[in-house]
């Protein structure tokens, strides 16, 4: 009967109870919505980083990461390609030849990373071909074609067919320069990336830097997997198969991606904790009012023999009931809004320049880890119990004789 | 058989500031089956005495023996259990649980005593019938008149099969007819089931129905008389 009594007690003042239930529901909704937003943003950053620049796996010479010297090449990319075809369906790879250097127009010059690519393979890994906003993606056979970003074009005052000079070290560490003509201008959506990279045909770059020993040098093989969960397995298999190389996954290559990935869970917990903390005070206030306006009745209950444990339990139950009504409401609202924004996205193109600066998509699709629902349920129950302690202590500290004034 | 015996009860409020001597050496003995009214002017100590006999307050000095137990030696939790088993209370302002029906209010004390559900319901219905509320069992207090609520309170006081029932001015908020009805019920229960009732009251109708009248003045027993009813 005590649970029944507790349940009926919360409906003595329906307005107040509904307000608290709505506060709990909206609090939970807000925590889930914020969590969905943060997770969606982080996931967008991770997805963009993987699909646009890092890929799932990269293979380098073991020394390349320490000293990006053109001499540190990996073996023939073809061997990796045939191994991938046998081992992983849906794996795309792009062999890249990399040199650091300068790009110069008649107006300005910039430090850049020159990436020599095989157009079709790179398109399958990073989708670079789809990011061309002007010109073409290595469509003609014309030698020394160059892709630059629109930001780079602005800085160099260059446009399609402009001649730009690339200067870099060849594999003998001699300075080499060559003139390239802009054939395409791209926008990746990430300002830092756009400012750092230019793309040329791999054959053109190899011709300029090669030595007799290494006629077709490749410094990096980027691998994109359609099945992302295969990353760890394939990394181990590739490392085993090509022991003289260093096979790294996207977390190892880009610590920022790892940071975002690890943030996803903790950010949700932080939002949840802040909102639950705020709710604690709201619930304590309500329950304290509920106790103080029933002082006489609580005194009577203790006078007729209801012990302190039962009184305490009754107040805790009242609080838990309030929360348990509010929680499903908030979770349902949270689920519905996350499902909606997860499907249709939240258009943040009004902040496109900021979003690009941080490598984020302009449309954020909300998502949450399903375990968040369990975490919310546990957090609400703990919050309710925590919030009930003070009012319940207040109730059991009442002296029946003072509470009811006189028998 | 003696159910209550107080010896040299003193009660001083605010002993360290401005002491108020509510009781000044009260010796009182009440036998099983008595129908006793404690009367006296306001401030004479009636309520304090009832609070102490009911285990709701403790004396500053003296002992209170209820059924051979010195309740001044019991802890708060022991007192709660003691009250639950031994004492029935009828409060002046009805003090029913507003969210429970009449039947649930009566069975609530038995729930605290861990009586099983069937027995609880049977006794609650029996008692409500005895106080003339057979047709109001499923009504909540707000749906009952003051007199009806006080009758539910009497039924609840009896539900735990207490050694005695303490009633503090039980008719104070009732009209004349409701007072008479309530007194009839309590007198009948007293005579037929030998239940001990102790009232504090100003109400002459209650005093007229009591078989023993204990008059308190300035915290002392001024007179202790029996009367024919």
3D structure, described in words:
The complex is a heterodimer of chains A (407) and B (229). In chain A, helix 2 crosses helix 12 and helix 10 (255-292) runs parallel beside helix 14 (371-396). With 407 residues, chain A is α+β, with helices and mostly antiparallel strands. Chain A is elongated and about 105 Å long. Chain A is 55% helix and 18% strand. Chain A contains 15 helices and 12 strands. Chain A has a 6-stranded mixed β-barrel with strand order 2-3-8-5-7-6, surrounded by 4 helices. Chain A has a two-stranded antiparallel sheet with strand order 11-12. The longest helix of chain A is centred in the first third of the chain and has 41 residues, at 14-54. Chain A has 2 domains: 2-50 and 258-403, no CATH class; 62-244, no CATH class. With 229 residues, chain B is of the alpha/beta class. Chain B has one domain (2-226): P-loop containing nucleotide triphosphate hydrolases (Rossmann fold), CATH 3.40.50.300. Chain B has a 6-stranded mixed sheet, sandwiched between helices. In chain B, strands 2-1-4-5 form a 4-stranded antiparallel sheet, covered by helices on one side. The mean pLDDT of chain B is 91. The A-B interface holds A 1-2, 5, 8-9, 11-12, 296-297, 300-308, 310, 400-401, 404, 406-407 and B 47, 50-51, 54, 56-57, 76-77, 80-81, 83-85, 89, 91-93, 95, 97-100, 104, 107-109, 111-113, 156, 160, 166, 168.
Q: Helix count of chain A, per DSSP?
A: 15
Low-confidence stretches of chain B: none
Structural class of chain A, please?
alpha+beta
* Biggest sheet layout of chain A: 6 strands, mixed, barrel
